[in-house]
Amino acid sequence: MTESTTPVLYHHMTWPEIAAAAGADVPVVIPVGATEQHGPHLPVGTDWVLPERILTEAARYRRIVVGPFVPFGYRSRPGSGGGQQFPGTVSLRATTFMSVVEDVLTELVRSGFRNLVLYNWHYENSGFVYEPAFLVSERHPHVKIVVMEDVNPDYTPERREQLWPAAFPGLALEHAAVIETSLWMHHQPDLVRADLIAPDQPERVVNHDVLPIDARLSTASGALSSPVPASAEKGRVLTEWFVERVVQVLDEEFSHEGGTR
Amino acid sequence: MTESTTPVLYHHMTWPEIAAAAGADVPVVIPVGATEQHGPHLPVGTDWVLPERILTEAARYRRIVVGPFVPFGYRSRPGSGGGQQFPGTVSLRATTFMSVVEDVLTELVRSGFRNLVLYNWHYENSGFVYEPAFLVSERHPHVKIVVMEDVNPDYTPERREQLWPAAFPGLALEHAAVIETSLWMHHQPDLVRADLIAPDQPERVVNHDVLPIDARLSTASGALSSPVPASAEKGRVLTEWFVERVVQVLDEEFSHEGGTR
Amino acid sequence: MTESTTPVLYHHMTWPEIAAAAGADVPVVIPVGATEQHGPHLPVGTDWVLPERILTEAARYRRIVVGPFVPFGYRSRPGSGGGQQFPGTVSLRATTFMSVVEDVLTELVRSGFRNLVLYNWHYENSGFVYEPAFLVSERHPHVKIVVMEDVNPDYTPERREQLWPAAFPGLALEHAAVIETSLWMHHQPDLVRADLIAPDQPERVVNHDVLPIDARLSTASGALSSPVPASAEKGRVLTEWFVERVVQVLDEEFSHEGGTR
Amino acid sequence: MTESTTPVLYHHMTWPEIAAAAGADVPVVIPVGATEQHGPHLPVGTDWVLPERILTEAARYRRIVVGPFVPFGYRSRPGSGGGQQFPGTVSLRATTFMSVVEDVLTELVRSGFRNLVLYNWHYENSGFVYEPAFLVSERHPHVKIVVMEDVNPDYTPERREQLWPAAFPGLALEHAAVIETSLWMHHQPDLVRADLIAPDQPERVVNHDVLPIDARLSTASGALSSPVPASAEKGRVLTEWFVERVVQVLDEEFSHEGGTR
Amino acid sequence: MTESTTPVLYHHMTWPEIAAAAGADVPVVIPVGATEQHGPHLPVGTDWVLPERILTEAARYRRIVVGPFVPFGYRSRPGSGGGQQFPGTVSLRATTFMSVVEDVLTELVRSGFRNLVLYNWHYENSGFVYEPAFLVSERHPHVKIVVMEDVNPDYTPERREQLWPAAFPGLALEHAAVIETSLWMHHQPDLVRADLIAPDQPERVVNHDVLPIDARLSTASGALSSPVPASAEKGRVLTEWFVERVVQVLDEEFSHEGGTR
Amino acid sequence: MTESTTPVLYHHMTWPEIAAAAGADVPVVIPVGATEQHGPHLPVGTDWVLPERILTEAARYRRIVVGPFVPFGYRSRPGSGGGQQFPGTVSLRATTFMSVVEDVLTELVRSGFRNLVLYNWHYENSGFVYEPAFLVSERHPHVKIVVMEDVNPDYTPERREQLWPAAFPGLALEHAAVIETSLWMHHQPDLVRADLIAPDQPERVVNHDVLPIDARLSTASGALSSPVPASAEKGRVLTEWFVERVVQVLDEEFSHEGGTR
């Protein structure tokens, strides 16, 4: 099997292939996601499947290893993921989540990688994804770890107009809505329950949180704003924008590493 | 000593006074801060001293207990607090910070409080302040915990014009800059080293993080944008806006509790 | 989308589909694996991909939910997985691994499942997979948790003869060897690097362990015995046997639940 | 601002001032306290406010940095602090407390301090304050950490006569009694609820502990012996004795460091 | 085997015997010790062997179960146990020690015991032995846990004169000295290396601690004061006094339980 | 006291004796056991007392230090130890158990030992005994740690015939049965309640586990197969076999160390 046919996904690679990539200073980009309700129309695996797809696409432009992905995230919160009151959501405690990311980083460093990227799709992981990177960095100051807590592209006014012609609901409410539904429609349309796409919105939108969870901060469906404007074409365009963003970060941070494809 | 003269600050109260407040369902509002560099001109205690002052002011409008404050926060990050490379900053590991907040909440619940607010001044505490609230809420579902991760007032265009007539640097860079310097000038001007106020700005501003810390994402002085436009008058006005914001949240969440003063 | 077309894999399901399955007392079977070297010819994802495939097959005979899978396992050991000296292996510390399994079980119980199975493919997870089940069971005594630490079928003398006509190396050494290579050849042959299949065996085979790792207890390739006798046909037959075993356990433990398909 | 006017309190200092003090090998003395009931007449902040005052006084005689203080301590126990049955007391679990002290020490070492003192006012912190010092010392053997678990001066017979002319109740019962009440009267008399000063004593005094807490080992008021003999003058004298003690320890342990003022 | 011949030591009992004792509300008294240097003349198991012997003697007067003993303690400190610089000492971290005691208590409660005593011989365990008792008590408020951190009898002036005719060195320095050497001489003289008994004393005796360990706070031999005055006869008398003390506590706390023998 | 009379048991040794053994590279062999029900006829201390006796015997053939033993093990499981539903069993949580073994190893390394053996008698400790060895080995790569999770001799067909003339029940069910009963009869017959020896066997024997514990996987007595064929003579022979096994491992792993006696 020649190198040109080495798989891009970490879990499809063999150990000598991984060792070779690490030895060549190829950046390893770790999709960090969640298993979380995404409305009645999208799979609960959304938060780790979509970044894996996007990074696989990015691997066409820059030499990277995609994965190993982290399929579980920190607890869902009402205003960004719907909240822990939904069945189906499988979240980790903060301490568990941080330990997993710490161990994954540690093992990748042990495997020889010196350029690592945490590519986080799940908003609630913010902060919790930085701490394990910090701890591993303290012990291994010779490696570089890039923490992308927010992987969104820049939604310029033009892009907002293109995606949300009616009105931009704000990124916080873009859960199981236009972005993610469009991406699924583009990448794996058979897993979208199209007949269940329907508008929804929280009764209350505030800039603080309440416990026990105030269900009015979330929605009944789990989509925090309307997925109705989604389309496969928007998913194709969004993929380009996401790829563009990660390629830009890779170029800024690892310009002398790995090289282009 | 009559109730009307009961101190507002938790650490100044006696246990019977605290028990009485808890029994009367008075909300207890916990300033959560940090011990962190704030440039050459502001004290490292900024992040817990300022919210304590603001809440003491708020206590003139609504009956609340202020404190016990948490003087240590999660690790400083370059783009929001300057980063862990600064001497003087005393941060907690994520697990330590979460345990402290969890224990403080648990003990306040044991003391009889049923309305609790985490009032967080330190941006990096986001998320880490939610987890302990979640854990305590699971065990004590009868109490209500409000988590204010971002306590800033709404900086309307008019207000931005008023505070930053030249240009708004963005809230992320408002560290040891106009807001905090003005507040110190208003509340305790003798602790402001006025002669050391000088403009500064990071060489790089990006939407991701890098470890080991890339010093270009922070500044040499520790102020992330210019404190030069600060003034005591702005501090007075800002205090009003902060008070207004917390009073609004108190009213929304505890409208039937405690009552007005 | 009708129930009959509900996906079998947890991460492909939506939250209402999961809630419905949980409410119908369908057993949820969690593939617990590892990310671990499997010789130069098999992907490092072997230990979670293969059980997912087998359980998907089992789902044709009994109504179960497959997943969410745990893609990381406890540290690889020389005599059963090759050991931690291999690049590519991404293991968790014992405490991290147990926390992940605990959280996954806790969340599935919260989601309404009352019949749970830990289906463990990675030998080194033994014990570590029992502890979190014990902890969750203590808190939720009304749910039933079945812990399958060893999911192998009974390799009767006839079956041994069929799989290893030359000589049975023992199950401990069946790492990246006949069983796993055959299963990949049957389920996803394009990921088998067939040209790299070659015999190997440890220099030392003992019934104790040594640290730092004695490389003679493992092999240079990572396969602990020869994968040469593997075949897609054996993979097909093995799948049947594995399915038969799990169906038997499901019937013994959940005979009154869920029903047959 | 000249060095001579650098504040003594850590939280009032700026990071360059702290860096300068650390670079000059000035000892940093950390008041470790508690938030704990101190009878109906004293604030719950007693255990960290009083040592801060005393050390600020000591800073007149030796160059030290005072703080950052630790305002929370290990659980209150009946025979020394009244016990966890009192509202208002906000204690940390042992693990939390030790983590906080460990992090504070670690950060001060990172900031450049090489001479550190844990100045503990809360009896129940004994032992728990040593462990984090031990852990940090193992990692940073080049720094010196002095652990003062008991900061009391030597109460000679003459001094006992002076403070407790009637009878010395023993130091264990000196909680919210003569020593602490006198110190408050001297340092901040407006926070003493003088009209609520009244004698009290436990029904049982034994040399073991009982759980659940036997309330007879504590008192109804929270004062473990009578605060009635307290006076501001005694507070002044006590301050001198406490200062004398800490100065002596500083001189013994850091004789070649920092110098006198 | 009749009940009258049931062994007194927990580890010699069978499970039905233990169940019977628990069911009869017999107090279980847990010797908590250490594995720690005790000079050149005494075994490192002193701190758990001696209390076991004394409690076995006490079992002649009151019906108790002795054990299970905890043979490891918290870190040795210079002024009370010689310190962690001695080979042979096997100490636990604070967190480990507390977890062990917590688990032992939890399991005894699960086994049916309702009267538990922690009988601590190792000074440094103070505090660390209280926390696990507190945690278990919170979860099992129906059981009574007595925590004897200091098991010494009252050394009245007469007794001091009898034991230390020359001069009482203070209990803190009574490590591997008169008390423990005498007890070994009485209970198991063949394990005393009599020819190695020699006087020793620390160069410095202070009321604070220093890290890294200042060896002058300990001694070269490990005995903190002279064991020369020890004798088997003193060991016999001391045993009586220790027994008397524990019997008194048992009677005070469990007067209505178990009954006398 | 000459070296030839140095005790073999760690807890009987003095610190200079231990330091001398460590300095001479004598292997330290740590019996790791449990406190667990062993039927109505055997003491709950079986799992640490028996290995201590066997190793003391082994010390006649090779120079080793025996101990410090670990008297507590991981939770009992139905199919190997009877399970956690039995009173009398005192198990540790996984995290506690691993921490204890880690600390014991760490302290022995600090004491100078470079050859360490974990000699595990309790089946359920498997895995949990490897993790702490791994952690300590990472920090101290110059020491050698041998992990004997299974200390059984090779039960050849001849030996099986000799021990179980009727039928070999399998090692998993050899709990409180022929092996352990025979060993007690040989080493300390007075602690065997001979009149209570009776056959027993589980109602169900399966290759998976169930929680909450299915009592049918265990027995009413606690013996998992019949102890009736036990005899003191078998205990003598078994001791020889166990000694032979450990001597063989010592010779294989430490051939150049310590030397023979």
Automatic annotation (TrEMBL), chains A, B, C, D, E, F:
Keyword Hydrolase carried by entry: yes
A Gene Ontology molecular function term of the record: hydrolase activity, acting on carbon-nitrogen (but not peptide) bonds, in linear amides
Highest taxon above the source species: Bacteria
Swiss-Prot/TrEMBL keywords: Hydrolase, Metal-binding, Zinc
Cofactor(s) listed: Zn(2+)
GO biological process, one term: creatine biosynthetic process
Enzyme Commission number: 3.5.2.10
Stretches that traverse the bilayer: none
SUPFAM superfamilies given in the database record: Creatininase (SSF102215)
Assigned protein family: Belongs to the creatininase superfamily.
UniProt-listed NCBIfam families: creatininase (TIGR04448)
Designated name of the protein: Creatininase
Organism: Mycobacterium yunnanensis
